[in-house]
TrEMBL record:
<dbReference type="InterPro" id="IPR051921">
    <property type="entry name" value="ABC_osmolyte_uptake_ATP-bind"/>
</dbReference>
<keyword id="KW-0067">ATP-binding</keyword>
<dbReference type="GO" id="GO:0015418">
    <property type="term" value="F:ABC-type quaternary ammonium compound transporting activity"/>
</dbReference>
<dbReference type="InterPro" id="IPR000644">
    <property type="entry name" value="CBS_dom"/>
</dbReference>
<dbReference type="InterPro" id="IPR005892">
    <property type="entry name" value="Gly-betaine_transp_ATP-bd"/>
</dbReference>
<dbReference type="GO" id="GO:0006865">
    <property type="term" value="P:amino acid transport"/>
</dbReference>
<protein>
    <recommendedName>
        <fullName>Quaternary amine transport ATP-binding protein</fullName>
        <ecNumber>7.6.2.9</ecNumber>
    </recommendedName>
</protein>
<comment type="similarity">
    <text>Belongs to the ABC transporter superfamily.</text>
</comment>
<dbReference type="InterPro" id="IPR003593">
    <property type="entry name" value="AAA+_ATPase"/>
</dbReference>
<dbReference type="Pfam" id="PF00571">
    <property type="entry name" value="CBS"/>
</dbReference>
<keyword id="KW-0472">Membrane</keyword>
<feature type="domain" description="CBS">
    <location>
        <begin position="291"/>
        <end position="347"/>
    </location>
</feature>
<comment type="subunit">
    <text>The complex is probably composed of two ATP-binding proteins, two transmembrane proteins and a solute-binding protein.</text>
</comment>
<dbReference type="InterPro" id="IPR027417">
    <property type="entry name" value="P-loop_NTPase"/>
</dbReference>
<keyword id="KW-0997">Cell inner membrane</keyword>
<feature type="domain" description="ABC transporter">
    <location>
        <begin position="40"/>
        <end position="276"/>
    </location>
</feature>
<dbReference type="GO" id="GO:0006970">
    <property type="term" value="P:response to osmotic stress"/>
</dbReference>
Length: 400
């Protein structure tokens, strides 16, 4: 993620704000609170009171239109937290503010309105109705809202098409694969046009290949619809792949919230570091973190003698060629420059133009094949084709 994107998210309006949120299960809540405040761990509190501190003093902000990922091991509190966002779990203490209004203080009608129109949820086990076909499941929420049959049918078909299930509208749910069922769940959640989409480990029951497809599908849908997505997972690679920002939880407490790149470079403590050490770094690190400045750089207007001198001084056999204002043109080799000198050719006559390029914000995982197969290190260029650096197979592999 580029600094510009990080700044953009930071400057966005806060949509959901969580302040000092705690959730406690059991009969000895007051005693559990007292013991926890005295410094005991979650397990120590439970041993003394048989009371579970599922969440403890969690504070965070979710920005508009971001994918905010919450990650943690089993028992970390991530699913408990996400269910507080739609009040399936009522917090013991603390506040959840949606557009600056505390949802825990909503009356019955306000909560119903919030759940129907502002927030939707996609579950791990799909949560579909087996007695309805695909379109019947997708339009269910619209039916509850009282939308006319024709209208809800049209909206449901749009969502079915968006998730790649066009043509299976009338299939029974039980005839679908796991990946297709999850697509139906996403389509149903999106049909209500919610501001926030909650996703509680939605892909964990899918096989690895289908899971990768669904991750890509989610990013595509997010790009099209610009929804705010709060995504729960226990997989650090999944978190870093799809998350604009990632929150790590442990024993009901929030440990760190950051972008994948910042979390990788500055883990808050050893627990976060252990989590990150298990991640595939190529899915976190961008090209800009690894690229280098080319040793040998010449301008298109230079003559072959200058190019030969630059390459010999740098001890290399090729050079990257730019026009005025650093616009990338291509690569020349020392052999070709020597031939150009003999035959009175210009650099443009010997320029190799079909050079692979990439952008500074591309993840390393997306260029491994190109970097491995390319004859020359990849040229790193910005949106206006200005040369920013180069990256070779050696740089990619060493970063792994």
């Amino acid at each position: 993620m580029s600094n510009n994107i990080e700044d953009d998210i930071e400057n966005r309006e806060t949509l959901l704000k969580v302040k000092n949120l705690s959730k406690i299960y059991g009969n000895e809540k007051k005693e559990a609170l007292k013991l926890k405040k005295s410094g005991l761990t979650k397990d120590e509190v439970y041993a003394k009171t048989k009371t579970t501190i599922a969440l403890w003093e969690v504070s965070l902000e979710v920005k508009k239109k971001e994918i905010f990922v919450i990650i943690g091991l089993s028992g970390s509190g991530k699913s408990t937290l996400v269910r507080c966002f739609n009040m399936l779990n009522k917090p013991t203490s603390g506040n959840i503010l949606y557009e600056e209004k505390d949802i825990s203080k909503y009356n019955k009608n306000e909560l119903m309105e919030y759940r129907r129109n502002k927030i939707s949820m996609v579950f791990q086990n799909f949560g579909l109705m087996s007695h309805r076909d695909v379109i019947g499941n997708v339009e269910y929420g619209l039916e509850i809202k009282g939308m006319s049959k024709e209208e809800r049918h049209k909206k449901a078909k749009e969502m079915i098409s968006m998730v790649g299930l066009e043509g299976v509208e009338n299939k029974p749910i039980n005839n679908l694969s796991g990946g297709m069922k999850q697509r139906v769940g996403i389509a149903r959640a999106l049909a209500n046009d919610p501001e926030i989409l909650l996703m509680d480990e939605p892909f964990s029951a899918l096989d690895p290949l289908v899971r990768k497809d669904m991750q890509f599908e989610l990013l595509t849908i997010h790009r099209k619809l610009d929804k705010t997505i709060i995504f729960i997972t226990h997989d650090i690679n999944e978190a870093f792949k799809i998350g604009d920002r990632v929150a790590i939880m442990k024993d009901g407490e929030l440990i760190q919230v950051d972008t994948p790149e910042k979390m990788t470079s500055n883990p808050k403590n050893d627990y976060v570091k252990q989590f990150i050490d298990s991640a595939d770094k190529t899915q976190v690190i961008s090209v800009k973190n690894v690229m280098i400045t080319p040793n040998s750089l010449v301008r298109l207007r230079d003559n072959p003698q200058i190019a030969i001198k630059v390459m010999r001084e740098s001890g290399v056999s090729s050079a990257y060629v730019i026009a005025d204002k650093t616009k990338f043109q291509g690569v020349i080799t020392l052999d070709d420059a020597l031939r150009a000198q003999r035959e009175s050719l210009r650099l443009s006559d010997i320029l190799i133009r079909d050079i692979k390029t990439t952008s500074p914000d591309t993840l390393l995982t997306d260029i491994i094949t190109d970097a491995t197969e390319a004859r020359f290190p990849l040229a790193v260029v910005d949106d206006e084709n200005n040369l920013k650096g180069i990256i070779s197979k050696v740089h990619v592999l060493s970063s792994m």
